[in-house]
Design a protein that fits this description.
Layout (H helix, E strand, L loop, with lengths): L6 H18 L7 H22 L7 E2 L1 E6 L3 E7 L3 E6 L2 E4 L6 H7 L5 H5 L11 E2 L7 E6 L5 E5 L1 H4 L4 H10 L3 H14 L8 E7 L10 E5 L1
Antiparallel strand pairs: 1-6, 2-3, 3-7, 4-5, 4-8, 8-9, 9-10
C-alpha cells in the first residue's frame, strides 16, 4: 500500500504465495475457493513473520485481488481497493466491492458515488492483507463462459479511468497485452497518482483436441 511501511515487500510476499498455487494444484477437481482463501491466509502468516524479523515492517500491507482458474470455473479473492471486472456479452460488471471508507459511506447512503470520487479520504482502505495476521477476504466462485474478458487492476487505474473508458478499451482492443498497455498509457496520461497494475485475461472456447477445457490468454 502506498505510503505504508514495506508495502512493496508485502505485495511481493503475497504474489509469491499465489504463484505457488500453480505448482501445487491439479488442473481440475480442486476446491478452488478453499485453495485460494488458504493462500490468502498463508500470505498473511508470512507478513507476520516478516514483521517479526524487522519491527520497522510492522503495519505493512497490500491489497489482494486474485483469481484461481481450473478450466471451467474460477475462484475470486478480494481485499482492499484493487478491483476485478468482467466483460460479458458486451456489458462490463464490477465483480468486487472496494473495502474503503468512502464505499462504506456510499453503502450507508451518506454520500453519492460522485461525491465518493472526490472525497478527501477516498484512499482510506478498511480491509487489507496486513502484518497483523488478519485476512478476511471476500470470496466467490464463478462459472466461466467463452469470450469472457476479465480485468484485474489496482486503484492507480480506476482512480483515473471510469467505467465508460474501461468498457471502451476492453471492447475495442482485442489483444490482451495490447489492451493492458493501452489502459496503462491512458492512466499515465491522465495523471494517475499511484502505481498502475493491470491484468487482462480472455476465456477462449475449446478447440479441436482441447477436451472441452477453456483456455485463457492474458496480458499483464
Amino acid at each position: 500500500m502506498g505510503g505504508h511501511a514495506a508495502g512493496e515487500l508485502a505485495s511481493s510476499a503475497a504474489i509469491a504465495v499465489m504463484r505457488e498455487l500453480d505448482a501445487t494444484l491439479p488442473e481440475t477437481g480442486s476446491d478452488l475457493e478453499a485453495a485460494l482463501e488458504g493462500a490468502v491466509h498463508e500470505a498473511a502468516r508470512r507478513l507476520v513473520e516478516l514483521a517479526d524479523i524487522d519491527p520497522a515492517r510492522r503495519g505493512m500491507g497490500t491489497t489482494v485481488t486474485a483469481m484461481l482458474w481450473d478450466g471451467y470455473h474460477f475462484a475470486l479473492a478480494h481485499l482492499g481497493d484493487s478491483r476485478g471486472y468482467l466483460l460479458r456479452d458486451g456489458a462490463l460488471y464490477q465483480m468486487t466491492k472496494d473495502h474503503t471508507l468512502v464505499q462504506s459511506m456510499v453503502d450507508e447512503g451518506r454520500i453519492t458515488e460522485d461525491q465518493a470520487a472526490v472525497h478527501p479520504r477516498r484512499s482510506m482502505v478498511l480491509r487489507v492483507l496486513g502484518s497483523e495476521g488478519r485476512a478476511e477476504p471476500d470470496m466467490a466462485l464463478r462459472e466461466a463462459e467463452p469470450d469472457d474478458r476479465y480485468l484485474l487492476c489496482s486503484d492507480g487505474l480506476t482512480t483515473v479511468l471510469g467505467p465508460e473508458m474501461l468498457h471502451e478499451v476492453l471492447t475495442t482492443v482485442t489483444d490482451p497485452a495490447a489492451c493492458v498497455q493501452r489502459l496503462i498509457d491512458l492512466a499515465n496520461e491522465g495523471g494517475s497518482p499511484d502505481n498502475v497494475t493491470v491484468i487482462v485475461a480472455d476465456v477462449v472456447a475449446p478447440g479441436m483436441g482441447d477436451e472441452g477445457v477453456y483456455r485463457v490468454g492474458a496480458g499483464s
